[in-house]
Design a protein that fits this description.
about 70 residues, little secondary structure, about 0% helix, binds zinc ion
Length: about 70
């Protein structure tokens, strides 16, 4: 190797990125959407970790439902 010292090899950055994405298979509707209060109509952004009906309306305290 005539010039083997100095900086490391270039163009060998492959092998990163990709993978770990695209897992689907939930039962409910996809991510996004809103929860809505059937009592007063307050809306919250739906959180994937928490079903709407387990959330309480911040205004009136009623159980939210999926919009
Ligand atoms: Zn409400």
């Amino acid at each position: 190797m005539p010039r083997g010292d100095g900086t490391g090899p270039r163009g060998q950055g492959i092998g990163q990125g990709g993978g770990g994405r695209g897992r689907s298979g939930g039962s409910a509707a996809g991510p996004g959407g809103n929860c809505i209060c059937p009592n007063c109509g307050e809306r919250l952004a739906h959180q994937t970790a928490t079903p709407c009906f387990e959330r309480k309306c911040p205004k009136c305290g009623a159980a939210m439902m999926r919009e």
